[in-house]
Design goal:
The chain has a nine-stranded mixed sheet with strand order 1-2-6-5-4-3-7-8-9, with helices on both faces. A three-stranded antiparallel sheet has the order 10-12-11. It is globular and about 65 Å long. The protein folds into three domains: 69 residues, DNA polymerase, domain 1; 204 residues, Rossmann fold (3-Layer(aba) Sandwich); 54 residues, Winged helix-like DNA-binding domain superfamily/Winged helix DNA-binding domain (Arc Repressor Mutant, subunit A, Orthogonal Bundle), CATH 1.10.10. The chain is 48% helix and 12% strand. The protein contains 19 helices and twelve strands. By secondary structure, it is of the alpha/beta class.
Length: 362
Amino acid sequence: MKFLNALNKINGLGPQKMKLLLDFFGTSQKIWEADYENLAKSGIGEAISKKISSEKEQIDPDKEWEKLEKENVRIITLKDFSYPPLLREIPSAPYILYIKSDLELSEIFSEPMIAVVGSRKMTSYGKQVAYSFSRELALAGISVVSGMALGVDAEAHLGALEAKGKTIAILGSGLDDKNIGPKTNFNLSRKIINSGALVSDFPIDTESLPAYFPARNRLMAGLTLGTLVVEAAASSGSLITANLALEFNREVFSVPGPIFSPSSEGTNDLLRSGAKLVTSIKDILEELHLEKRREIEKARKIIPDSEEERIILEKLGSEPVHIDNLVKLTKLKTATVASTLVMMEMKGIVKDIGGQNYIYIT
């Protein structure tokens, strides 16, 4: 994990190139230890091979990992048990996700998710809609996903929190406290961490910049079953999320607004383009057949048969973990870990790839 995190510090090394590297080298540590000639052989190209070779000299994987631990930021990868399944489906799925949450990883993405987005400069109408719709979605067992920006995003999170529901904030920055923003929403971020999660694919120490917002928007659209646009001007960034949702074959919902309000031009244009008109959350639940989807996902999901299996699965991914390390990570007895792994391997959940090094089988 620490080498994946270190590699993610290198700008330009996206999910496609990471996949090529991992297919070629097998593990992130071997990628990190490879010289320029071998990196180039992987097929990622000379330019990025040179970039990795030069920039990794200024990156200390151990120190970067210590920063994550200090900030209580956890990592999951594309191949991990806890990686959100819908996000895995999109072409630009990030290979690594950073998560800041008080919840267990298996809990964070366990419910159906809807993105709620809209204007930073919301009207009183937009504020009322964002808050009440998000509250009702949370009461219906839906996780509300937004970007924790000022305006509609913040109201969406607050509505879900008021209902004691789960809400997830996607940030276009690192998850270290100094870069969580906007600063006026820092206290809100603490509440989200307590009952949901802050999520990003940007490494720690990454500042929040407008150039990163489209990448954040792709996560919101990719994570969720659909995107609800509450209020948006004609040039609103919320429309980027809506267009990405369409690109990922997800549903787009739009709340109609006053025809003379500039803040509703974007939402009304979406309706003209075929977005689903929404006047209550019943419209969303019916369109998505959420009860049916829950039954299907429950049938597909690997449900641990014991607390020991759940604990072990939390620590396994595509990167091999030795049984001795699993004992340390899980704080379970050696005999318990060994016997549980045997049963899990028989069920096809995990695999010993040799030398008692285990991976989770997706």
